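Hi support team,

I submitted a single chain yesterday and got back a structure, but I'm not sure I'm reading the token output correctly. Could someone confirm the output below corresponds to the sequence I sent? I've pasted both exactly as they appear in my results page.

Thanks,
R.
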Amino acid sequence: MTDFLDFLNTADAETLKKLPGVTPSQADRILSARPFETLQDCSRVPSLTEKRLARLQVVYFEQIQTPIPTEDLTENEEQKDRLETEPDPQETQPKQSKPGRVGRILIRILIILLLLTAVAAAIYYGVPFLYEKFVRPVETNAASITDLTAQQNAEVARLDEEIAALQARMSTLELRADTTDQTLKAYGETLANLEVLQNLLDQKLTNQKDELLLEIANQIKLTRGIELLSRSRLYLSQSNYGLAKIDLLSSRNLLYSLLASLPADQVGAMKIVINRIDMALINLPTYPVVAVYDVDTAWQLLVDGLPNVPAQAVTPVVLPPLETTIPTAAVEVTPTP
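Hi R., thanks for writing in. Yes, this is the structure output for that exact sequence:
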């Protein structure tokens, strides 16, 4: 049995065709179905039935000059007797007439044509229906999603630009605020130092009526007045009118105290400075732009060293310093010579 199985696994097509009943097509099918582990695996070949396999096995042992084992001879004899007693199923089947076979072939062809027609009709009418029912809505939704995505991307890009611009503006404002805070701090420190110096000089003036110390005290007061005007100008640029009015009032009272000790050629300019400060106090907070102009004019006169001014048609009348109320500027009209 093993020798016959090895023969089936190793024989070429020419050797297989030498066996009786093995056609070239059967030999090719046996070659394509190899290898066979057992004789039952030979059933994979369509034309190689169990009876035909037994016949081939008997022929194989009869033609090859190899001693056959007793067990195999007994099995082969039993198979041969069984094959001789049992008729071939193909021989027992009645031969069919040729017209009957032609009719079956025509019926099969007709059935195939009907199936192909049905498939073609299903494709012809079903594909457009499926396209309109399923594919087109998907395409429409995909186009809508694409448009919405594009709009969303555009909005996101616009928002990113606006956010970047706002962040840049915030950075600029923060920088300006920091600079302003530093400037205000510097002004505060300068004013505090000047106030300390003024207090020291006032104490010395009380004990010593020295003209030089008095002049230095006047210069310190004048410097403090300029610093107060500068800080009030900064408050006005920030629209902080309350603190600006406080600094203007302090500067006005401080400068008013210098009128009695100033030289005669500086008194007129000092009166104009005080009058401008009074006008700025009156215009705040209603007319801040006009108040800024008055503050700038007063500051410029102080920085220029209170220059001698010619006789004017309108001579300002300066009121005494006030602590809680804002003075009202009054003017005395004199005829022009």
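A quick pointer for reading it: Residues 15 and 218 are 138 Å apart (CA to CA). Let us know if anything else looks off.

Best,
Support desk
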